[in-house]
Amino acid sequence: MTIKRVFLFLLFLIIMLTAFPLLADSPLIYIGSELWANFEAIAVEGDYLYAGFPYGVGVFDISDSLDCFLAGIYYLGENVSEIAIQGNKLYAAAGNNGLAIYDKTDPENLILEGELNLMDEVITVDVQGDYAYLGGRISGLHVVDVSSPSTPGRVGFLTVTGGVNDIIADGDFCYILRGLGGLSVVEITDPFTPAFRGSYSSSTFLREGV
Q: Is 4:11 a contact under the CB 8 Å cutoff?
C-alpha cells in the first residue's frame, strides 16, 4: 500500500509539472528577507525601502538583498497607512496626526520637518509639485501646500461622501478610489478649488490604485 501511494504521488507530480510548466520553472527566486510585522505601506527608492507601520515609519537598507536590515525607525504615535516620496522629502499619511513630512537627505537619519493635523483620519497621500493630496476617512480630499515643508498649510478641500481609500494625482486631475462608492474624478487645475468632474459606480470594493 505504501509503495502504491508513493507511485501515485509521483505520477500526480509529473502530471502537474507537465500541465503547469511555470511550477517547474518559476521566475520567482528568493534572495533575502528581513523579519518585520504589520507593514501598512511601502515605498522604494535606490538602496532603501520606506515602510509605514501602526506607529510610524521604518527604513530598511536593501542594498544587499542577502543582508537587508532595519536602518531606522521613527515613531509618530499613529498608524502610517501610506507613504509618498518626492525629491528628498517623504510624506506620510499618519492617521489622526494628519500629514507628516520628513527630510530624507540621509535615509538612515530622517528628520521630521513638518506636521499638519487636518482634524480627520488621514489614510492616503499623493504629492505633485508643491501640493500634497490627502484622503481622510471621514471628510474627503484635503489639498495641502507643501512648498514650505516646515509650515504646510491646507489650501483646498472637497467633501467626499463615504470617505477616501486612495488618491492618485496626475496632471490636472485627481482620481479618488472610494471603496464601494466607486471612483471619483476631481479637477485640481486650481488646487484651492478642487471640483468633481466625473464618477464611476463599482460593484466591487476599490481600495488602491497604481
A: no
Q: What is the pLDDT of residues 68-127, one digit of tens each?
A: 889 999 999 899 999 999 999 999 999 999 999 999 999 999 999 999 999 999 999 999
Q: Helix and strand tally (H, E) in the chain?
A: 2, 16
Neighbours of 134 (CB within 10 A): 29
Helix (H, G, I), strand (E, B) or coil at 31: coil
| Residues 52 and 102 sit within 8 Å (Cβ to Cβ) | no
pLDDT at 23 over 60: no
- Closest listed residue to residue 175, CA positions, set 160, 190, 155: 160
Distance CA(172)–CA(189), nearest Å, equals 5
Closest CA to 133 of 95, 97, 186: 186
Spatial contact of 172 and 188, defined as CB atoms under 8 Å apart: yes
As a 3-state breakdown, the chain gives helix, strand, coil percent values, each rounded to 5, of: 10, 45, 45
CA atoms within 13 A on the CB side of 205: 3
Length of the chain: 210
Amino acid in the structure at residue 78: E
For residue 123, the tally of other CB atoms under 10 A from its CB is 24
